[in-house]
Design goal:
By secondary structure, the chain is of the alpha+beta class. The protein is built from two helices and nine strands.
Length: about 180
């Protein structure tokens, strides 16, 4: 009888636990990423891309990750003023507004096999960025030299983005150039 009572009590406790409502999901505290440069410790190589095994595989741009724009937080009013998305909808370039209109803006790309990197506008002002900028990264301290030029079509939405390396230029990306406000 004692054994039967113990089993019954254990069963009731187990059933009561099943009827207990689930705890509310734990939400992670949102933090604002300001003046933080986040880059992977290891370069990511997308081997599914054409020519990924070649010496110049980094000429192919990968889609930007959520926090790549923090790379230009110190030199702009933040990323996302304008973005270039290829025909597949992947955002390959984001550009931040200059801190003052007489200063140059900056952009972020993620070359295949390299961490995300910042490029700087070749001319000053927000209008320069909105109307199709050329951004450049010089080969400093053994870093990758890279030039990205956005050319707008007549409709001001369609665009072509050319990527130039010291070794030459890759085929241009076709997509859209969109800017806030």
């Amino acid at each position: 009888m004692i054994l039967r009572t113990a089993i019954l009590a254990t069963s009731l406790v187990a059933l009561a636990a099943c009827d207990k409502p689930a705890d509310a999901p734990v939400e992670a505290a949102a933090t604002k990423a300001e003046n933080v440069a986040v880059a992977p410790t290891e370069a990511k190589l997308d081997i599914t891309l054409p020519g990924a095994n070649s010496e110049y595989a980094y000429a192919e741009l990968l889609e930007l990750q959520a926090d790549d724009g923090t790379l230009i937080a110190d030199s702009t009013k933040g990323a996302g003023l304008c973005t270039f998305a290829d025909e597949g909808g992947r955002v390959l370039l984001t550009v931040g507004a200059p801190p003052q209109d007489d200063k140059a803006g900056a952009g972020v790309v993620r070359p295949n096999g390299k961490p995300a990197m910042a490029l700087f506008a070749q001319a000053d002002g927000t209008d320069y960025i909105v109307n199709g900028p050329t951004l450049e990264r010089k080969a400093i301290d053994g870093g990758l030299a890279l030039t990205v030029a956005v050319t707008l079509a007549d409709d001001k939405k369609s665009a072509t983005m050319a990527v130039k390396l010291p070794e030459g230029e890759r085929d241009p990306y076709i997509g859209t150039w969109s800017c806030k406000g």
